[in-house]
Each structure stands twice: as C-alpha cells, then as structure tokens.
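Lab meeting tomorrow. Please check the following:
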Amino acid sequence: MGMDAFSRRAERELSATGETVRKHTVETGSQLTVQEAQVARLVREGLTNPEIATRLFISPRTVEYHLHKIFGKLGITSRKQLRR
C-alpha cells in the first residue's frame, strides 16, 4: 500500500520540526499530547472553542475532540475543573 514510504516521510517531516513521535504505552496513555496541552492551557486562559481553534489553526470540532480526550485523561468532567 505504500505505507512504509508514507511513514518515513512523516518521520522526516516531524524531525524537521524538532518533534518526535511518542511511543504509545500504558505509561504514556494518560499523558497529554502536545496539542492537548496547548488546548488545556488556552481553556485555562478562558478562551472559547472557536477562539482556541483560530489560535491553533484547527476546527472547533477538533478542539472538542481534544477536550474529550483531556477530560478522560485527567479524570475531570468540565472546563471549570480544568481551570483549577
């Protein structure tokens, strides 16, 4: 299918940005990704989903997705809890 070539290209592009690929393990499963941490920080600053989406060049729906993942990883259920 050509996935090996795609994988190598993605790895080169990530390397060029200084990022690395996180290995998914039991230990990293509860850690926030870089994108999730950015969303969480902007929520704590009081921004709305559309404002966060604009800042991060993603859709508001993607912000909602990240918030869902953040809430699960942190064991919380609201933006209010995240601000604390």
